[in-house]
From TrEMBL:
Keywords: Branched-chain amino acid catabolism, NAD, Oxidoreductase. It comes from Tropicibacter oceani. The keyword Lipid biosynthesis does not apply. Pfam families: ECH_2, NAD_binding_11, NAD_binding_2. Residues 350-501 form the 6-phosphogluconate dehydrogenase NADP-binding domain. Belongs to the HIBADH-related family. GO terms for molecular function: 3-hydroxyisobutyrate dehydrogenase activity. This is 3-hydroxyisobutyrate dehydrogenase. InterPro entries: 3-OH-isobutyrate_DH-rel_CS, 6-PGluconate_DH-like_C_sf, 6PGD_dom2, 6PGDH_NADP-bd, ClpP/crotonase-like_dom_sf, ECH_dom, HIBADH, HIBADH-like_NADP-bd. Its EC number is 1.1.1.31. Residues 504-629 form the 3-hydroxyisobutyrate dehydrogenase-like NAD-binding domain. PROSITE patterns: 3_HYDROXYISOBUT_DH. It catalyses: a (3S)-3-hydroxyacyl-CoA + NAD(+) = a 3-oxoacyl-CoA + NADH + H(+); 3-hydroxy-2-methylpropanoate + NAD(+) = 2-methyl-3-oxopropanoate + NADH + H(+).
Amino acid sequence: MSDTKIRKQGRAGHITLTRPKALNALSYDMCLAVEAALDQWRNDPQVDLILLDAEGDRAFCAGGDIAEMYQTGTEGNLDYGRRFWRDEYRLNAKLAEYPKPVVSFLHGFVMGGGVGLGGHCSHRITCESTQISMPECGIGFVPDVGGSFILARAPGRLGEYLGLTAARMGPGDAIHAGFADHYIPEAEWPTLKTLLRETGDAGLVQQAALPAPDSPLAAQQPQIDALFGGEGLADVLNLLRNDTSDFAQKTLKALGRNAPLSMAVTLEMIHRLRAMSNLTIRKALELEYRVSHRIMEHGDFLEGIRAAIIDKDRSPKWRHALDKVPAVDVSRMLAPLGKQALDFRENSMKIGFIGLGNMGAPMAANLIAAGHQVTGFDVAGVTVEGAAQATSAAEAAKGADVVITMLPNGAILRSVADDIIPAMQPGAVLLDCSTVDVESARAVAAQAAGAGLGALDAPVSGGIGGASAGTLTFMVGGSDDAFAKAKPLFDIMGQKAVHCGPSGNGQAAKICNNMILGVTMIATCEAFALADKLGLSREAMFDVVSTSSGYSWSMNAYCPAPGVGPKSPADNGYVPGFAADLMLKDLRLSQQAAEAADADTPMGKAAMDLYQSFVEDEDGKGRDFSAMLPRFEKRGRG
């Protein structure tokens, strides 16, 4: 069951967190669902604003769901947490920068991840029950999800105080500190939501708002500014120890419970961000991610979760004593990450890629360049820079969200499928980009479905050049759900992906397309050879045909005559962009399918026979399929 309720109502897109028993703690799936909705509504003319709220009486969102991070982190898998944070931080930035009004209704507990979700919206509404805080230092982490951005812009030294102590803010404090905008009693919310949905007018929020309640923090601001004005953690501790007020002693006790390294890093983060003249939420998130990336391995995060959530002994064993946090450890946490820096790219997937030949290798490289995690396997030992190398196809498939295959024929596809399907995780998608027979594609899809997997047959058009440039066309067969999951990958590897229907239809489309291509290339080559013998120049021939009824892709984009039209393999000695051997394979597949379907395809068969002679009996093997032209040049009618 989904933990978010996402729908369009009137002029609004409405997102409701529906996990009240867990205080609406934000899971990875919830994070991705919210982002997908925002992406869908960004350019929807029927959606004027977004409403963001939550079920239950106790919390809007009490933080991120960190139990899975603890489990994976203690197992040595640091990638899960890093991936979660990358995607969550991208969502935080997206909310802050969203082009339409986003109205968040912040009731009850709003902590950590809840601040990231509701605290960067354009219209942030509090009520009587609102309790906002950034409690991360208590579990060995630092204020993140863009919280450091708000803390750095808070009045005076409130950012340092709130970040280090995890003090809770009621509605008046939250508005004073910059974590919220408006105060509207919760009893008025249903009426306001109805009006917002009906009108799409976010200006109604301001009209409904009441004066903010008093802020105790504002009253204490001078004392907080004095006590938290130190440069480092040791300075703050000294100021607190030398102040005998109840407030100072209570604050000192609160700091004594938190992770020393986390507090020292938090202070440094806030100071760096406050000093920036052009501070943006992206800069804050990038700095936060430097810590997130390292926190499990070099910080106190796992120990903090253990003590607070897992064992609940409330006795964490921090790495450092309160007064003994080396400056070098703080600097190490905040050092730039280089290629691993947060870059706000769209959702990263874990991809297994099997078959890294002339087509597969550049396709995999494009996925890596887009930020996806690729593990490759090729029987010839081919590797791709940036991809992890597996020792078997099954190893490459293990744990992947999508497994892509690019293989020579249907028999090999079936064999590989036997190896990888048992290794794939439920819900993953097997995306076969090979060109194979329809029967094999459908058999593998049925086998995948039986194992709880999605399956797509998605042969490509565009050749090696298209694979390198990311301009392939994919002809795709399979379910709607599997196609939707793979669509972001198609957008990286190609310029177009056509969903042709159920499994096998992608191969059917490719076979029909390439039968046309084989036939038209032969006709184009025959026509040039005839033009030569009739004394018509090739340039004149191209100029006429390319703008007349003889127009075709074979003529206009892939002209087989050297020096005529756009550059093509003909201009490079017919070094293959698409080999004649592969055209013969595709034409054989077309005739195999035609026989099975009882379809009369005389031109397709004639093209197959000609390419068979060209490849097997003449000099066509290893040459481009357009090298039919010099073949016809040499031949007479007999």
